[in-house]
From TrEMBL:
Residues 516-621 form the GRPD C-terminal domain. This is Glycine-rich domain-containing protein. Pfam families: C2_GRDP, GRDP-like, GRDP_C. PANTHER family: ENOLASE (DUF1399), GLYCINE-RICH DOMAIN-CONTAINING PROTEIN 1. Residues 357-486 form the GRDP C2 domain. It comes from the Eukaryota. One of its GO terms (biological process) is cellular response to osmotic stress.
Length: 812
């Protein structure tokens, strides 16, 4: 699968699209007009619900807190959780109770991070939290005059009080503490019987669902607050009409619902005033299967919402994203960054001038049609596209109309927030979702994306413009519903393609998504990297021993680890990782044809995917502007190494074809060579225990004892140390494909990878000791690494699993 950024819409035969904010409907008849007025009245009634907290500001604080917890994933682990729960029950709640009765600090009380995490999840069961507080402390313990651990407020006062009350319990704990929880805590009379461990585990996946940038914008959150009020009003109407419905929120609504619950006194008072009861938050059901409680509840919620308000419930950027991507490591890594001269960065960054563009996610639905001639009843659909292709959404797709098709179809896609969405109503004799040749175009219309973006939603009737040969007294009318996210910066998509030959070297042209040439790259003798622009040539990288110095030493690339250090720390990892991990509908993609660039920092200690390289096509998708040039150089060097190894393998195949005819001088084969030591030129020999052979070595010091699978294709190598495990790889398993290397240390496990398993792909490297085997597109084993002891070791490109329990939004 290419990384080309053309957006292919996801078409779902499901329950509608969502819209937030102002109520917008243009009715088409007297009956519909009356219904529209009633629905508008219901929406206005919903917006009159009083909320005593600033939920937009509080939601932003919640997102900041959840991000902090996700940076400290030791708070997800059972042993640490048990200690955090103990501290929460025995220290934090008593301190909070004392503070709520009579303030113990002049400023706000600052809750420790671990206690805040437990407190957060306890409050998300508002009924149980209220009953626990009243049972143990006689009142609800609120967060009034309490500051979050992530707020920039001094905690000195709080620490003094804490240390005075709990001299044996530190204010802060971290992942390195291994203090055991006292054995008798569960018998304490002031401890809730609520299973806080399970409650916390259920909340862990929530942050992934709400962590995208648009979720943290005022416009999106204000619309979410409006929809949350609509959600409460819907539940109120169900109660008044004695209708039983398991109401399931979308994630924008759920984020605001969580935020409201984190203010327990306000939540209790607000809900009692508007609903007459405290609304329970039930997050225990997680089965998303067809016909299950969640599925049925969500379908009913959609129908009720549309009937009550006349607007769509599906909402762009607020739907389930799929399961959380597989983590790269369980150990955080925060690199020590060395300050670099910014001027060098600016000087080289000017080599590439890419305009900034933005992208939105759109959810589209065609709801209803009017004045359709009888001839075409049940035989029409709508083709939608951008009026002018924008490089992201360049296709035309088909979507059925709910009133004609009998059930909803919703399309989700990405595009630039400019221009128009263009719609063609066509006759259609097939129900297949693939785009057929239209029988006849009956009319067309459009919606300006600027109008959609301004409100994040639109729902309106369009008078379709008929074809010139169409005769009709009344224009065909189409009801269109769409929602979108707030625009965010779009990724840069570049193509690295060898296009011309100069002398004995190739020049690689890099183009943008529109085919415009950006820069030329040239590798000279695997020692110099040249950048070629209209202004001329510039040396942008030099190989010094085993490392590349890039952009006047602003960046350093450790080739054997594919680790880029400098202003940021970035590692190239085999496969599609983190946010690039393929979802269920993308499973046919060969993930080993991809490499993911992952940034590690204090903000992202578990890694953040910032670029994706398609090894086959040369397409490079870059999320961050600062990584465009460094990312191109990293990808170019990697592709050059891969190409050299491919040429090596081709030469090896020819070499083996002639081995039976020409026995070349060999230093001898030691005892126990199971597979032979053929095709060695001036080699020192093959030590005892070589199971698979040490073929095709030129001027090599030999292959040490215990080589299981082969140390082939080694040029001027110091040898392969004891313990090299066998390998199966497109570019040589074991310790193969080392150029001018001093050797591969003991314990190198074999690898299965397209670019050399084990300790492969080392250019003028020192040694690689204790490298584990791996399976990946670019050198399992030393090529990737897990993080421990302040370095990146053993993160491999092994396949990730998407078979995780599907997490759900909370529901009433």
């Amino acid at each position: 699968m290419s990384t080309k950024k053309t957006s292919k819409p996801s078409i779902k035969q499901s329950q509608g699209s969502a819209i937030a904010g102002a109520f917008v409907i243009i009715a088409s008849s007297g009956e519909n007009c009356k219904m529209g007025m009633e629905q508008e009245s219901e929406w206005n009634a919903a917006q009159s619900i009083e909320i005593s907290e600033d939920l937009v500001a509080a939601a932003k604080l919640q997102l900041k807190f959840l991000a902090a917890v996700d940076r400290n994933r030791w708070l997800y682990e059972d042993q640490t959780l048990q200690r955090a729960i103990y501290r929460y029950n025995s220290c934090w709640l008593p301190l909070l109770a004392k503070h709520s009765e009579s303030r113990v600090t002049n400023g706000p009380l600052v809750v420790p991070l671990d206690c805040e995490w437990v407190w957060h999840c306890h409050r998300l069961n508002p009924v149980r939290y209220k009953s626990d507080c009243e049972e143990f402390y006689g009142r609800i313990l609120d967060n009034c005059n309490v500051a979050s651990s992530v707020e920039e407020i001094s905690r000195e006062e709080t620490e003094e009080i804490w240390n005075a009350m709990y001299p044996d319990e530190p204010y802060d704990i971290n992942s390195t503490r291994s203090d055991r929880v006292p054995e008798n805590v569960n018998g304490s009379e002031n401890y809730t019987k609520y299973n806080l461990v399970l409650a916390i585990k259920r909340q862990i996946p929530f942050y992934y669902q709400v962590s995208r940038p648009h979720m943290n914008t005022d416009q999106f959150l204000e619309a979410a607050v409006a929809r949350y009020k609509g959600f409460l009003h819907l539940i109120k109407r169900n109660k008044e009409r004695s209708i039983t419905c398991f109401c399931v929120p979308t994630y924008d609504i759920d984020l605001i619902w969580h935020t409201h619950q984190l203010h327990p006194a306000s939540y209790s008072n607000d809900l009692m005033k508007s609903l007459g009861k405290i609304l329970e938050h039930d997050d225990t059901d997680q089965n998303r299967g067809k016909g299950q409680k969640l599925d049925i509840g969500f379908s009913k919620t959609i129908k009720q919402w549309e009937a009550l308000f006349g607007s769509r419930y599906w909402k762009a950027g607020a739907m389930y994203r799929g399961s959380t991507p597989s983590p790269l490591t369980v150990t955080p890594f925060i690199p020590k960054l060395i300050g670099k001269e910014v001027t060098a960065h600016n000087k080289f960054q000017k080599l590439i001038d890419l305009p900034e563009s933005h992208v939105i996610e759109v959810v589209l639905e065609f709801v209803e049609i009017e004045n359709l001639p009888e001839t075409y009843k049940k035989r029409v659909c709508v083709h939608f596209s951008k009026a002018q292709p924008d490089g992201i959404f360049d296709v035309k797709r088909k979507l059925n109309i709910q009133s004609e098709f009998g059930r909803k179809q919703v399309a989700t896609f990405q595009c630039k927030p400019t221009g128009k969405l263009f719609f063609e109503l066509v006759s259609d004799s097939t129900s297949d979702l693939l785009l057929p040749e239209p029988v006849k175009t009956l009319g067309y219309g459009s919606i300006a994306l600027e109008d959609l973006v301004s409100d994040l939603s639109v729902e309106k009737w369009l008078d379709l413009v008929p074809r010139s040969d169409t005769i009709s007294s009344d224009p065909v009318r189409l009801k269109v519903a769409a929602s979108c996210t707030v625009p965010i910066p779009a990724p840069h998509v570049l193509k690295i393609a060898r296009t011309s030959r100069l002398s004995k070297s190739f020049v690689t042209q890099v183009t943008d998504g529109n085919g415009n040439e950006i820069i030329g790259l040239q590798m000279r003798e695997m020692k110099e990297l040249i950048g070629i622009t209209k202004e001329g040539e510039k040396v942008i990288g030099q190989l010094i021993e085993s490392e590349w110095s890039l952009m006047d030493s602003l960046w350093t690339l450790k080739v054997q680890k594919m680790l880029l250090t400098g202003p940021h720390t970035v590692k190239l990892i085999p496969g599609r990782k983190l946010d690039y991990e393929p979802k269920h509908h993308e499973r046919k993609t060969n993930i080993h044809n991809f490499m993911t660039a992952v940034e590690f920092s204090a903000e992202y200690p578990y890694g953040r995917a910032i670029a994706l390289l398609d090894v086959n096509s040369g397409d490079l998708m870059v999320q961050e502007a600062w990584f465009v040039l460094p990312g191109l150089m990293l990808a170019f060097i990697f592709l050059n190494i891969s190409r050299k190894e491919t040429e090596f393998m081709a030469e090896e195949a020819v070499f083996k074809a002639t081995v039976d005819k020409d026995k070349l001088a060999s230093g001898g084969c030691g005892s126990g060579c199971g597979g032979g030591c053929g095709n060695m030129v001036n080699s020192g020999g093959c030590g005892s225990g070589c199971g698979g052979g040490c073929g095709n070595m030129v001027n090599s010091g030999g292959c040490g004892s215990g080589c299981g699978g082969g140390c082939g294709n080694t040029i001027s190598s110091g040898g392969c140390g004891a313990g090299c495990g066998g390998g199966c790889g497109g570019c040589g398993g074991g310790c193969g494909n080392m150029v001018n290397s001093s050797g591969c240390g003991a314990g190198c496990g074999g690898g299965c990878g397209g670019c050399g398993g084990g300790c492969g792909n080392m250019v003028k490297s020192g040694c690689c000791g204790g490298c584990g085997g791996g399976c990946g597109g670019c050198g399992g084993g030393c090529g990737g690494s897990t993080m421990k002891s302040g370095c990146l070791d053993n993160i491999t490109g092994g396949p990730s699993s998407d078979e995780q329990p599907m997490q759900v939004a909370a529901h009433a």
